[in-house]
Amino acid sequence: MTQALIAQNNPSYEPEGWQETLFMWAVLVAVLVMNAALSRILPAIEVCILVIHFLGYFAILIPILYLSPKGTAKSVFTSFTNQGGWPTQGLSFFVGLSGNAAAFVGTDGAVHMSEEIKRATLNVPRAMIFCTAFNGALAWAMLVAFLFCTGTITDDEALAPYPFIPILVRMVDSDVGAAVMVSLVIALEFCACVAATATASRMIWAFARDRGLPSWRLLSQVRLLRRSSREI
């Protein structure tokens, strides 16, 4: 996505596979450093991520609603396309639905952090249900707004690596404005990597503690830096 954003703002840029690999390793190193070196303030970082998520949502929603021409309710709710060449409209719908469902795969992350949560049997299910309901409602509102403001998608937009980037440029009629919006999405994707790594590290440690992984003796070691009677 970072390469697509650069290419959108610099037509002479040619994305290369090795650059994508370097971007991936840079993100991985940054995420590992944050989880290892800043683990004590990780809860505070997660709160900041929540604020960025909430404010960033409206920073994208409000400009596209204000600046973009609007379609009709009939065109949004009664028009269906099948540009993937699937044999039926229903099959095309369900294939497309799988990509949207992927946004909710991280809901179980709270389960793997339950040993660090007060009253986990109560608060973890609450967090999972609230997260799904809250983000589902936000996603539905963003989807409807995007459909009303998208208009006719050109061939160039449809063939772009990330079609929503050139569509945003057309919506707000500004390369800079669209770049800021996409940068927010990239920042939140990075934040999601931080949370996913924290979750995965706890899961790996739990398996190692139960001798379920190779080198479990090494992976299950925990160095106590400071004793505290307070729960995290």
Structure, briefly:
The protein has helices at residues 2-9, 17-37, 42-67, 73-78, 89-101, 109-112, 120-150, 155-159, 164-172, 175-209, 216-219. The chain has 232 residues and is mostly helical.
General description of the model:
The protein has 232 residues and is an all-alpha fold. The protein is 70% helix and 0% strand. The protein has 11 helices and no strands. The protein has helices at 2-9, 17-37, 42-67, 73-78, 89-101, 109-112, 120-150, 155-159, 164-172, 175-209, 216-219. The model is unreliable at 227-232 (pLDDT under 50).
The end-to-end distance, rounded to whole angstroms, is: 35 Å
Low-confidence spans: 227-232
Shape category = globular
How would you characterize the largest beta sheet? Answer: none
Roughly what percent helix? 55-70%
Give the integer mean of the pLDDT values: 83
How large is the count of helical segments?
11
Portion in beta strands: under 5%
**Measured on Cα atoms, how large is the radius of gyration?**
21 Å
Indicate the structural class: mainly alpha
User: How many distinct beta strands?
Assistant: 0
Give me the strand/helix succession: HHHHHHHHHHH
Helix and strand arrangement:
Layout (H helix, E strand, L loop, with lengths): L1 H8 L7 H21 L4 H26 L5 H6 L10 H13 L7 H4 L7 H31 L4 H5 L4 H9 L2 H35 L6 H4 L13
Helix pairs in contact: 1-10, 2-10, 3-7, 3-10, 9-10
How would you describe this structure in keywords?
single chain, 232 residues, mainly alpha, globular, disordered C terminus
